[in-house]
Write a structure and sequence with these properties.
Helices cover about 40% and strands about 15% of the residues.
Length: about 400
């Protein structure tokens, strides 16, 4: 007769304690302040000027849906297959042709690489060009997405003050003196965060300084199509074609959720970008590329862009007019010729972080300027986005913000 079985002893699971030595680069890479704030502003009752979102009402959902239907019906299996790293040839041809007609740039499709948004452009550029300790000249204030992505490669940032017409020429020349700056990164059209557009004269001054150096220019043109008035000045790449890497995006004129951008570069640089892209993700979302290409083929994109420009001009004008009415003495702001942002400077002693905290209590979200500075600064500045709210909410939100600032400056 078998004896009694002993009860099974169930041991408590031992908690896993993972000690991970993260790469050194992670300690120098800041979190995206905007992404953290957007978590707070998901409440629809909050009027948000904090993000950089296009107006969702201006996304052509019907047109994109029709393009998707047509692609899947006509060539679905190919559109859902792996593809070449460089991107869908007709889309690259379209971008090259548009550069020629819009900006007078003689660009071939072989000089275009399709990316997962323009942010990936910066990551790929950092991978192929930036070693630890390399100097990167950047605008002050500078785009925080570029600061974040380039920080991964452990450079030394050299900020150059941004004046109303572009980078301060004397400071720019000093920053490039010695010839050891690896990159100059800038946004000449409707700069993020300031909204400033470089004048043609200031562009030429920058080009004259850059022309005698080995510094690669990274010209971010995410907002170039969103100019509200006047003639667009020539891009830096027009003057320095082989020395300039130009980046673009469909996020602002078609749909950000499609995550389609591109980098335009001289072939020796492009060869290395393709290798880095292959190592990163093989190729960008091919279905999105096919849908975007079909949409651009079937749509009067210039008419669509005019619609966006008209709407954003009205939203910008509403924000500025309301600030003129409600802001206390000592508050100043830029008046952008395009893009999506206004840069606000607060009165002396008024903290942008305190404004952010108090405004959020009034259900208005703003973005303090601090993360746009890599050397300290921005404590008295705010970036306001006017593209993602209608004029009624803009007026209401700015009135609340004005009350907050007035209460802090009495």
């Amino acid at each position: 007769m078998a004896g009694k079985q002993k009860p099974v002893q169930v041991q408590e699971p031992v908690p896993l304690r993972l000690t991970c030595a993260f790469a050194r680069r992670m300690h120098a890479t800041p979190k995206s302040f905007i992404r953290e704030i957007l978590k707070v502003t998901e409440n629809p009752d909050i009027i948000s000027f904090a993000g950089g979102l296009p107006n969702p009402d201006l996304i052509d959902v019907r047109g994109i849906a029709q393009a998707a239907t047509d692609v899947l019906r006509d060539d679905g299996r190919a559109a859902l297959q792996y593809a070449t790293t460089e991107g869908y040839p007709p889309l690259r041809q379209y971008i090259a042709d548009r550069y020629r007609t819009r900006l007078g740039l003689d660009v071939s499709p072989e000089e275009i690489l399709i990316t997962n948004g323009s942010q990936q452009c910066l990551d790929l550029i950092g991978k192929i060009l930036v070693d630890p300790g390399d100097r990167i000249v950047i605008e002050r204030p500078g785009y925080l997405g570029a600061i974040q992505v380039f920080s991964l490669y452990e450079p030394v940032f050299v900020p150059v003050e941004l004046e109303p017409e572009g980078p301060d020429p004397a400071a720019f020349e000093t920053a490039l003196a010695g010839g050891d700056a690896k990159l100059f990164y800038g946004i000449p059209n409707s700069q993020n965060p300031s909204g400033i557009t470089y004048s043609e004269e200031r562009r030429k001054a920058c080009v004259d300084i850059l022309a005698g150096t080995r510094t690669i220019v990274v010209e971010d043109d995410a907002y170039g199509e969103l100019r509200f008035s006047g003639r667009s000045p020539p891009p830096l790449k027009k003057y320095l074609p082989d020395q300039t890497i130009l980046t673009g995006s469909l996020s602002k004129i078609v749909a950000p959720g499609m995550r389609l951008g591109w980098v335009c570069a001289h072939l020796p640089i492009m060869d290395q970008l393709v290798v880095a892209k292959q190592a990163s993700d093989l190729h960008s979302n091919f279905l999105s590329q096919r849908i975007a290409s079909r949409y651009l083929e079937d749509t009067d994109i210039d008419a669509h862009i005019r619609k966006i420009r008209d709407a954003y001009r009205k939203q910008r004008d509403c924000m500025i007019a309301t600030m003129q009415d409600v802001m206390p003495e000592g508050v100043s702001w830029t008046e952008p010729e395009g893009g999506m942002f206004i840069w606000v400077t607060l009165p002396p002693g008024c903290s942008s972080m305190e404004v952010f905290t108090h405004a959020l209590r009034e259900q208005v979200a703003v973005l303090p300027g601090i993360p746009f500075y890599i050397d300290g600064g921005g404590t008295d500045t705010l970036r306001l986005n006017f593209s993602n709210a209608d004029t009624g909410r803009i007026a209401e939100g700015i009135e609340r913000l004005g009350q907050v600032i007035r209460s802090m400056t009495r």
